[in-house]
Amino acid sequence: MNNIINKIRQELRQNSDESIQKSSLNFFKEKIKVYGIKNATVSKIGKDYYNDIKEKNKTEILDLCEELWQSGYMEESFIACNWSYAVRNNYKPEDFSIFERWVNNYVSNWASCDTLCNHTIGTFVEKYPEYLSDLKKWAQSKNRWTRRASAVTLIIPARQGLFINDIFDIANILLLDKDDLVQKGYGWMLKAASQANLQVVFDYVMKNKPKMPRTALRYAIEKMPKELKIKAMEKDF
């Protein structure tokens, strides 16, 4: 099994581009590890090698994902995210502890966080909504990525109109968070929720805008009609 990981890493190194690596390092505020490869190329490499392992059982595939996460390289995390999402039809409740470990121990940038949470963990929570209570615990974590994960996990369910009360619960916990990437995360969650629940999200924003960080507010109202945006951005005197 390790042979597959070695082959992937060899191919990633062969496709690395110094100019892409430099631009990636400059794009992220936090320190990241990257080979420097276009996302489309990373996706293709991941798909090609998934064809070699797709007959394996889910546990073996998730073990390979863990090994990819452990490298710290962003491109390897993307392949791990794609593979863990590929086995979504076989998710079981006990898989949550695996995904939680990845968030707490390996996620080190917003791109890896969002890729894992939007797809793998978001799909898991749709299947097992009893784990929404765990997302609320994540929102209270000292780890900035775990707090962001609590919100961005619900982006796709939010667009479908799901879990609106839980979305507000998480937004309440994160409301005064001082980390701009957490603010953007829960603002994005509210924006996604506004697509299916416009009025209740607008009411939530209006109620909380005196204390909501401007960054979160701007994200939350981005998809709203112009007249509602103007109301939301008006200063209260």
General description of the model:
The protein is an all-alpha fold and 237 residues long. The protein is 70% helix and 0% strand. It contains 15 helices and no strands. It has helices spanning 2-14, 18-27, 39-53, 58-70, 74-86, 95-105, 110-127, 132-138, 144-152, 155-159, 164-174, 180-194, 198-208, 214-221, 226-233. Helix 4 runs antiparallel to helix 5, helix 8 (132-138) runs antiparallel to helix 9 and helix 8 (132-138) runs parallel beside helix 11 (164-174). It starts with a helix and ends with a helix. The mean pLDDT is 96.
Key terms:
15 helices, 70% helix, mainly alpha, Leucine-rich Repeat Variant, 2 domains, 237 residues
Brief description of this entry?
The chain has 237 residues and is mainly alpha-helical. The chain is built from 15 helices and no strands.
